[in-house]
Amino acid sequence: MNYINDFINKLQIKRYSSSTIKSYKNALNLFFNESGLLPESVNEKDIESYILNKVSVKKISRAFQKHLVCSLKLFFSEVCNKKLKLDYLYPDRGEKKYPTVLSKEEVKLILDSTFNLKHKTILSVIYSGGLRLSELVNLKINDIDSKRMLIYIKQAKGKKDRNVVLSDKLLTLLRQYYKIYKPKLWLFHGQNGGQYSKRSVQKILDNVLSKIKINKKASIHTLRHSYATHLLEAGTDIRFIQELLGHNSIKTTQIYTHISDTQISAIKSPLDSL
Predict the structure, then answer these.
(1) DSSP 3-state assignment of 140?
(2) Which residue has the higher pLDDT, 256 or 272?
(3) In terms of Cα–Cα distance, which of 180, 198, 220 is closest to 139?
């Protein structure tokens, strides 16, 4: 579809990330393939009917509904010069779903049960700095600054750079890893010397979780959630956590105030005062 290619070209010119472009492309392909409509004939009612079907019949999530509407709105604005009024199709109320968080004991068990040095180093880097999966695979050798004890995260989500603390334990582990694997460019390289695949990273964690019988549904991103929660429970100011995670808004970081076991356990039930 040439119009989707035109859309992708415009997003590339505006320097959208490859993952964002891919997600928009997938949403648009889904819409045009399922609806059978051509861009020049689409109007607000067509999109409304499509979204209604996805919500009532296909039972899509609020997040995916929002993504579909956003993708279509941007596409018609950029490619067709149509300013479609679609804001009313966004879900009114968001779902309050708290992220899964591992306890410090569970994180320790995961790392202690990962015997492959490269795999253990990968999981340790993610938890130690609260990295996103994409940030991990994009790390290069010179992003590790052992003199300043910092890890440089370059051009992460939102095209922002940030620094996170390089822990003493992680530095020791990285030095052991470097002596054995001798990476050249990427900190973690795949079998053919390129970047380590995201799927392989998730598989590392899945294998360990199945071995140690942790029943929580955890992903690599769960280690990032756990990092933020453990910092909060240790008394770290939430504004510092916001910077370390690379959040644009403090509201995004405040989700962790709702899931901190330390804060919850500090509250006394009124029953105890009777």
Answers:
(1) strand
(2) 256
(3) 198
Pick from 50-54, 153-157, 208-212: least confident: 153-157
Per the structure block, which two tokens stand in for 221?
């991103």
Tally Cβ neighbours within 10 Å of residue 71. 19
- Among the listed residues 54, 154, 157, 162, the single catalytic one is 157
Residue 260's pLDDT band (cuts 50, 70, 90): low
Catalytic residue among 25, 132, 225, 230: 132
Is residue 157 among the annotated active site residues?
A: yes
- For the entire predicted model, the pTM comes to 0.71
Q: Using one digit for the tens of pLDDT, what is the confidence trace for 10-44?
A: 999 998 888 889 999 999 999 999 999 999 999 99
247 is catalytic: yes
162 is annotated as an active-site residue? no
Query: Domains in the chain and their CATH numbers?
Result: 2-89 (1.10.150.130), 104-264 (1.10.443.10)
Residue 230 appears among annotated catalytic residues: no
Please answer whether residues 127 and 107 qualify as being in contact, where contact means their C-beta atoms are separated by less than 8 angstroms: yes
Q: Which of 50, 196, 227, 256 is catalytic?
A: 256
Catalytic choice (25, 224, 225, 230): 224
